[in-house]
Amino acid sequence: MMTYAIVTIVAIIILLPLILGLWYLKTSVFHKPLGKDEWAFLSQVTEKMHPGIKQWVEQKRADGTFKGIFIISEQRLRIHAYYAECPDATATVILTHGYSSCAMQMMPYAKMWLEKFHCNVIVHDLPNHGQSEGKCTSMGYVEQKILAQWIETARQMFPKTKIYLHGISMGGATTLLVAGNSDYQQHIAGAISDSAYHSVWEVFGWELHKRHVPHFPFLYVASFLNKLILGWSYKQVSPLKAIGKSTMPVLIVHGDIDNRVRVCNAQWLFDAKTQGRKQLWITKGAEHVQSYSVYPDEYAKQIESFFNL
Known about the structure:
13 helices; alpha/beta; 8-stranded mixed sheet
């Protein structure tokens, strides 16, 4: 009887972290994003934060301002984007959305770049989001390669323009991963990272903390399973390390009451950048990715002055 009890306890100790690790892997990486239905996302999420943007997007699609384009990723996935060309533009911006959303999340930013700064715009759907193919999200590990492909596409489409990167949340983290890569720095004039995490380990750990689940052993098991199944661990995806290698101008934005990605991430990222120009703007009273909706005019001014647009 005692032996049976011991075996049961040992089995629970071993199996429970494994089961919870698999559950977390499924819910965090193998998930169906809200942004799979881009028009529902535009109506139900983006429009609430930026009233009037739905009508603007519909108008710009109807008059041909925004056109669709697809590229093929290294993983043989069809990756979608909208692009808009601005006459006599001297710059092109590539906009990268956040976790579980789609290109429609970035349309308010596209409007700013098009109408205020008169730039060409590429707004893309990351794998497993919007119109892009894929069955999982890698929090920047694969997404940085996709963004790099869009940089090459932008160089071909708009060869005489400077290229800027602008991403929010997971898109901000992805932007920093590319901004710290020496293969692409020479092609990028600057980057804006809004509400980004400094590592996947940090953001997933914070999510578990909010659910009252201890890091050990669950986060370690989930990361190990992720590495085993998908080929990357949580600690491998580190915008913090990337920005430490970046020499380009980087503007970091973060809301001070962000409960999804703690505001301390912004300070860590800012401190890690030791080369090139940098600026940190903490917005008071703004939640996750809400700095632009709360301070639209100041947001544009921060970009305009920092990059001298």
